[in-house]
Amino acid sequence: MRTTRGALRILTAALLVAAVRCGSIDAGSRVLPRGANPADAERYAAHDGSSAFVCDGGATTIDRSRVNDDYCDCDDGADEPGTSACANGEFHCRNRGHRSISLPSSRVNDGVCDCCDGTDEHDGGARCPNTCLAAGASRRDEIRARVSSARGGVDARRKILEGAPALRRRWQDESVKLEKDVAAQREIVRDASVAKEAAEAEEKKATEAEDRLNKREASKNKGDDDASGNETAVADTAVADAVPTPTPTSTETVDEYPVIEDDAVPELQAIDDVADEREESEEERGRRIAQQWIHGDSESTGTAPSGPSSPADVPDAIRDRATRAKKAANDKRDVHAQAQRTLTELEGKHKDVTKRLSTFFGPNMELAHMVGECYKLTVEQYAYEVCPFGDAKQDTTRLGTMQPVDVKDPRTMVFNGGERCWNGPARSITVSLRCGGGGNKLADVEEPSRCEYAAKLYTPAACDPGEVDALERELAEMEEEARAAMGAPHDEL
Question: Where is the composition biased (Basic and acidic residues) (predicted)?
Fold first, then answer.
């Protein structure tokens, strides 16, 4: 059964239809049922004088007078945008001077002011003042600030894009140079390795000779009865070791390798003196020279040698040779280690620049300028740091390493694989890029889920000229709505 209120609305609708027929009202552009979205104006307009209203995708047709009569005739709820009769209906708050919104029609006339213009409580018990102009003023100020920042961001973005090709060329030049530096350093490492091995070979010989000498002296100090017999065998090796074997090098002469020259120990000159005595075997000659070294006998004159070349000096010469050989080997090891460290550093730099050249930095390389940069923000007692294309952390706790930028979503940076929470997931942070004209700035860090963080990074790189134009249009529309709200006639049923 229709209510009295519904009957009054039918009468009102009939009068308006008559006005439309007389041409006094443009139904297609000015008259909308209360709560209808202006975007659906064509749907509610009367065409060619027809009073029919079509809904449910064309399946249902009712008389236009039954729109907003507080009775749900259409399954899609389109006939009751301004009442709560249809459970699935929507009420559109025009909110002139502020921002329009849509509500479930169940909230119409429920005693709560949901629309700033109060239109949702037109027949309810609540008295709703129109606060749209005041609320809209704040919103308009916000939009103006965003437009100003976005305009500056667009200009800054233009400069970033202009510098992107030069940045890429610089990386390419760096890659070529590093490739050459790595090749040259590998040669240096190879040469240093050869020199080190030669020095270590000499060190080994000299050390072994010194060890045998030390054993001989230790045995002698213990009063070994067979010392004289052992002296002969020890002397054979000690004298042989005292004459170093020449060591070839690849690119340099190893002058620092100490040797015991023949003229420094005259006893060893016996090797040359007997070289021509062909009737003497190598074994006999070695034994004879050893006896000379041990007993101080002279091979050719029978007189004891004089000066620093006496047999007592031979152990000192052997020890001196070992000391010098160890120092030379240590020096060569240090040179080789430093050369290897330099090579590792150069290879790391080359790998890094090669990776940069193959990384996606946005459709126009607009994110490339962030490489090597870090952005910080302190929230309460925590200090956050985000390094695009690197790592993110909270104080000293790693929040993750940045993953490659998604080609389909270049305005989102995802860092994952951070330190694991106690009995929880590994930490991660998602950084959303927002247009900002004041440089790159980290903001709004929060933790929506345990150990899963979110933040915003305001940057000119995210400023789209098309979006700036949209903001400017929104601002112009809001200002027009504000002017209309101060003097426009009420045009809803």
Answer: 196-225
Nearest Cα residue to 244 out of 268, 278, 266, 267: 268
Token pair belonging to 118: 């109060």
Helix (H) or strand (E) segment spanning residue 400: strand 397-402
332 token code pair: 């060569």
Taking alpha carbons only, the member of 401, 408, 399 closest to residue 360 is 408
Q: Which residues contact 390 (CB under 8 A, 6 or more apart)?
A: 372, 374, 401, 402
Distance CA 365, CA 31 (A): 50
CB-CB contact of 224 with 206 (8 Å): no
Domain with CATH 2.70.130.10 in the chain: 373-482
Q: 373-482: which CATH number, 3.40.309.10, 3.30.450.20, 1.10.260.40, 2.70.130.10?
A: 2.70.130.10
Locus of tokens 């045995």: 219
Report residue 151: phi and psi, to 5°. -60, -45
pLDDT of residue 47: 72
Residue 43's CB is within 10 A of a number of other CB atoms, namely: 14
Provide the pLDDT confidence category of residue 271 given band limits of 50, 70 and 90: very low
Strands 52-55 and 60-63, sheet pairing: antiparallel
Which of the 8 DSSP states describes residue 263? G
Q: Name all contacts of 115-119 with Cβ < 8 Å and 24+ positions apart.
A: 117/93, 117/485, 119/34, 119/35, 119/93, 119/94, 119/492
CA–CA distance from 314 to each of 135, 238, 239, 243, 274 (Å)?
A: 103, 9, 9, 12, 20
Q: Is the pTM for the entire model greater than 0.85?
A: no
